[in-house]
Amino acid sequence: MPLSLVLGLGCALCWGFADFGGGLQARHLPALGVVLWSQIAGSIVLGVAILATGQSPPLDAVAWGAAAGAVGGVALLLFYRGLAVGLMSVVAPVSACGAAVPVVVALVRGEVPTPIESVGLMVAVAGVVLVSRPSGKRDLHPSVDRRTVLALALGAALGFGLFFVLVDQGTEATRASPLWVIGGVRVGSLLTMAALTTVRPAALRWPGRRMGPVAAVGVLDTMASILLAFATVHGNLGVVAVLASQYPIVTVTLARLVLSERLSRLQAAGVAMALAGVALLNLG
Fold it and tell me: Rounded distance, CA 46 to CA 43, Å?
């Protein structure tokens, strides 16, 4: 199996566990606080790895990474909020449709999608429509409308897709270690989260006994980002992005096993179609 595929799948595994854990913690802590403290924990691990390379920072790669971090940080905030107030089994697959963004970016650049990619886009969109249909169950936070949850998931999808594109640009901008791109990602993300805490200072509150799980989320998220950066060096962005976007399989499975989440038949069909659309984008 090509190295890029192994790295892409490893990225999906790490993100799947991190997203489940982050969504779980966001049900007890402010989503902004979970993102902020988890990113700080992940940055410590990343800093040690970067220092071990002994390389000086390439400014272009760090700049692209910072842009990716700013977009990805906001996307992660929307995602964790969605996971906290909605069904993880719905929010995670919808957010994975961000894999379509690199395809759209390619289209804007004049690259026509293949027939399989076009079908994949349509199937993914149809899946999003189905999972947004009412299930008749009290599966949401009582103060949050279903459309709000869907908007959070779609906003996260857009942000994650742009994150893939910007990280790929960063890894192409330098021959130095891709770790520097992820270093830029963390700088951009932390600066963005710090700016947002000026509006919600309560997010700075120490998580207390939940700091351990929150830190684990940050370490897993950082590992996923590192694997993504190295995968884009060794393989095609579109393939890597779609493989990495398989993380909902892990998140949905954990939600079913740990939280006993249940979907209506219509929602289950929508989840299946969203994941099938992502798979078709991979084949394209």
Answer: 5
- 35 with 76: CB under 8 angstroms? yes
Compute CA 268 distance to the chain's CA centroid, rounded to the nearest angstrom: 21
Say which DSSP state 99 is in.
Answer: G
3-state secondary structure of 1: coil
Counts for the chain of helices (H) and strands (E), in that order: 12, 0
Coil vs helix vs strand at 245: coil
Residue 13 CB coordination number (10 Å) = 19
Do 159 and 71 touch, CB atoms closer than 8 A?
yes
Average pLDDT on 183-189 reads 93
Residue tagged 């700080």 (tokens): 40
pTM value > 0.90 = no
pLDDT higher than 70, residue 1:
no
* Residue found under tokens 């854990």: 21
CA atoms of 119 and 284, how far apart (whole Å): 9
Q: Give per-residue pLDDT as tens, 86-127.
A: 888 888 888 888 877 877 887 787 777 778 877 877 887 787
What whole-number distance in Å separates Cα of residue 213 and Cα of residue 198? 25
Residues ≥6 apart with Cβ < 8 Å to 260: none
| Count of residues in the chain | 284
pLDDT tens, residue by residue, 233-271: 777 666 676 677 778 888 888 888 898 887 778 778 877
Residue with tokens 């969504």: 23
- Whole-angstrom distance, CA of residue 107 vs CA of residue 279: 19
3-state secondary structure (DSSP) of residue 133: coil
The pLDDT of residue 41: 94
Cα 209 from Cα 86, distance rounded (Å): 24
Taking only Cα atoms into account, the Rg of the chain, rounded to an integer number of angstroms, comes to 18
